[in-house]
Amino acid sequence: MKPEYTLPAGADFHVHLRDGAMSEAVVPTIRPGGIDTVYVMPNLTPPVTTVAQALAYRDRLRAIDDSINYLMTLFLDESITPEVVREAKAAGIAGIKSYPKGTTTNSAGGVLSFESHAETLRAMEECDLVLNIHGEVPTGTRPDISVMNAESRFLPTLLDLHRQFPRLRIVLEHVTTADAVEAVRACGDTVRGTITAHHLSLVIDQAVGDVFCYCKPVAKSPEDRAALLNALVTSGGKFFLGTDSAPHDISAKKGKGSAAAGVFTQPFACQYILTALEEGIERGDIRDEQVTEEVLSGFLGEWGRDFYRVEQSTKKIVLRKTDEVIPESLKAAGVEVVYYRAGKKTWSLEWL
Amino acid sequence: MKPEYTLPAGADFHVHLRDGAMSEAVVPTIRPGGIDTVYVMPNLTPPVTTVAQALAYRDRLRAIDDSINYLMTLFLDESITPEVVREAKAAGIAGIKSYPKGTTTNSAGGVLSFESHAETLRAMEECDLVLNIHGEVPTGTRPDISVMNAESRFLPTLLDLHRQFPRLRIVLEHVTTADAVEAVRACGDTVRGTITAHHLSLVIDQAVGDVFCYCKPVAKSPEDRAALLNALVTSGGKFFLGTDSAPHDISAKKGKGSAAAGVFTQPFACQYILTALEEGIERGDIRDEQVTEEVLSGFLGEWGRDFYRVEQSTKKIVLRKTDEVIPESLKAAGVEVVYYRAGKKTWSLEWL
Predict the structure, then answer these.
(1) Torsion over CA of A231, A232, A236 and A239, rounded to 10 degrees?
(2) What is the DSSP-derived secondary structure letter of residue B245?
(3) I want to staple A227 with a disulfide (CB 3.0 to 4.6 A). Which of A50, A178, A269, B49 is the partner?
(4) What is the DSSP string of A288-338?
């Protein structure tokens, strides 16, 4: 890898910007991570299930930073009828996100089975609205499911959906396993996968014991991590960046009870990717010559923009290898959010 | 299961009693857990590597509660020569514990390979001193090892050791996988396994996100948990109780940085086992009629005492099903240790 890269601005196709104080803290960190376009998750409380809610949410985000292109989504539940789908398409909503019931933050109203949503999916296919999938079998629904196999066991459902709706554009979000990489590759061109920064660098060993490395889906084995790094460098557009940056106040991580799931990566989105690639080369998971500028530009923004039919960015970012370290936490708007890889080295990032 | 059991006093063949303030807090909780005999781990700082240290440690424990039978161990490192083994046997030391280097609390001086300890193991076999094994391949030594497969990948080493030293009594501590149960069963009568209370009830899903369920080895899959419950009820003496109760102050769990590994189960040792069996029956992992008084008496004490050649206890405990809940934490001697399953129902325990 080179010590410096000048690349098109990044696009992050899976972000949690929250609302209220947390969004005031987090939205201003999008640009420092090298990102000008974000695909905004709808799992607020209550979830974003109407076009009006989505547009009002976008207004609130724009009021914080109007230099970002916010691509909005709806939360798939029973209220998302074919009419809502057509209304969403007309209003410029980019996609609809499906969460398995109870699997992650604010997903209690999520999907137990896609069968009851068949009409909605048909309408999405007709309107060409993207379906985003959190691809895990909800734990607790089957006795053989644990966090380690919940994604792999979901993949037959992905393949079924794709067979049933071959023109429906589907993104399997935050893939964490070699199995998921293989399943996405086995599907046609309408199916893609996003990969987070943290799953490119973590394994389950860090996710247990360090609550700031704990998220859903959990990080898996070293072999799975190597498969993700390989998916990135051989992606050809099949896989692109979606950080799933998921801020939680430190009190929800270190306070009483279980820790909230989520890793906070927004402020160093592009930087983390370069570090993960460097470490992957060091471990021998990927080869240095595979990390080309084409791969970096593609994964960090171009491939996702292509898939979502968003104009390519004319803005540029410069990433430089430095000895700077990531500070402990973001303290703003009355919240404190601990950074992923706090205290470790990062790249610097500058907008041209 | 019955609502009440009168059983011989339990024996816990794997406990961490620590030293100083922590031992003052924890040692008085041995009896409330229904236990009168404990097998004391040597991973203090510095580790217990001499007979004199072990006897002095036992004196400190007796000064806190002299009604408990403390079985003492040494920490296997280069200083444990055949001479030390013979001296240990003569002094009534019960066994020698081997930790893989760097795998858990205070194990930095541990074993990387048993080959360099062959003379010591030969002397242990001759003296009939028990070898206790933390059976995980140290993560970081091989790129394919993660916390999820570290135990399974260690098992060939166990089988090799048993082949090389067939008369050496070996205990594979805190087995967590179906693989480990199978490996112990595949060995001759000199090899046994201990099972903790928490691995009979946890799976990896709770170990990530809840630091009070985080320990080494980590809890594994639902199938692995079912295998442990089955090992218990079909043990016939092959598996017996070793709680691996591992107290850490709340500051080491919820404070800055990664959480210390360890689940604190001492004060409810026998009670947790009954709850784990009840839940295992509810899930269908085991059948109600398998949980006989013979199995309970055996697992909770008799089988371990037999193996370690400790006299059977004449004391009795009574366990009763109640609606009492486990309190939040033990606060004593200036430390605070959060209980496993705080806030959940437990059985009551009384000494006759």
Answers:
(1) 80
(2) B
(3) A178
(4) GGG--HHHHHIIIIIHHHHHHTPPPP--EEEEEEEEEE--SEEEETTEEEE
Measured in residues, chain B has a length of: 352
In A, which residues are within 8 Å of B261 by CB distance?
209
CB contact under 8 A, B146 and A205: yes
Is the pTM higher than 0.90? The answer reads yes
Compute the nearest-CA separation of A26 from chain B (Å).
22
Contact B22, B31 (CB under 8 A): no
**Minimal Cβ distance to B258: which of A210, A255, A283:** A210
Tokens matching residue A236: 């050809």
Residue B345: which pLDDT band, with cuts at 50, 70 and 90?
very high
Torsion of CA B8, B12, B18, B23, to 10 degrees: -10
Relative orientation angle of helices B222-233 and B269-283, to the nearest 10 degrees: 110
Among B208, B281, B285, most A C-beta atoms within 10 A, so best to mutate, is B208
Residues of A with CB under 8 A from a CB of B: 139, 143-149, 203-205, 207-211, 214, 218, 221-223, 254-255, 257-259, 261, 283-284
Question: What tens digit of pLDDT does each residue of B167-196 get?
Answer: 999 999 999 999 999 999 999 999 999 999
Rounded-to-integer distance, Cα A340 and Cα B56, Å = 45
Of A144, A207, A284, the CB nearest to B208: A207
User: Which residues on chain B are in Cβ contact (under 8 Å) with A136?
Assistant: none
The two three-digit tokens of residue B5, written as one number = 């059991």
Kindly compute the dihedral angle of the four CA atoms of residues A160, A163, A166, A169, in this order, to the nearest 10 degrees: 20
What's the sign of the alpha-carbon dihedral B32, B34, B36, B41?
A: negative
CATH code for the domain defined by A4-351: 3.20.20.140
Q: How confident is the model at residue A141 (pLDDT cuts 50, 70, 90)?
A: confident
> Which positions in chain B touch A259 (Cβ < 8 Å)?
209-211
Q: Residue B190 CB: number of other CB atoms within 10 A?
A: 18
- Of A308, A329, A328, A174, the C-alpha closest to A245 is A174
| pLDDT surpassing 90 at residue A69 | yes
Provide the 3-class DSSP secondary structure of residue B87: helix
Q: Please report the DSSP string for A173-232 in residue order.
A: -S--SHHHHHHHHHS-TTEEEEE-SGGGT--HHHHTT-GGG--SSPP--HHHHHHHHHHH
Structure-token pair, residue B334 = 């200036």
- Closest by Cβ to A259, choosing from B205, B209, B223: B209
Query: Cβ distance A121 to A168 under 8 Å?
Result: yes
φ, ψ dihedrals at A8, nearest 5°: -60, 155
Q: Which residues of B touch A208 (CB under 8 A)?
A: 147, 204, 207-208, 214, 218
Which residue has tokens 């980019």? A94
Task: Report the SS3 class of residue B196.
Answer: coil
CA distance A81 to chain B (A): 34
Nearest chain A residue to B143, by CA: A222
Q: Could you give the CA distance from residue A8 to residue A316 in angstroms, rounded to a whole number?
A: 4
User: B209 and A145 in contact by Cβ < 8 A?
Assistant: no
Which parts of chain B fold into alpha helices (H)?
20-26, 51-64, 82-90, 118-127, 155-164, 178-186, 204-207, 222-233, 250-254, 269-283, 293-297, 303-308
User: What token pair was written down for B144?
Assistant: 């394919």
pLDDT of residue A197: 98
At A97, phi and psi to the nearest 5? -105, 130
Q: Residue B207: list chain A partners with CB under 8 A.
A: 208
Closest partner residue to A222 (CB to CB) among B144, B204, B261 is: B144
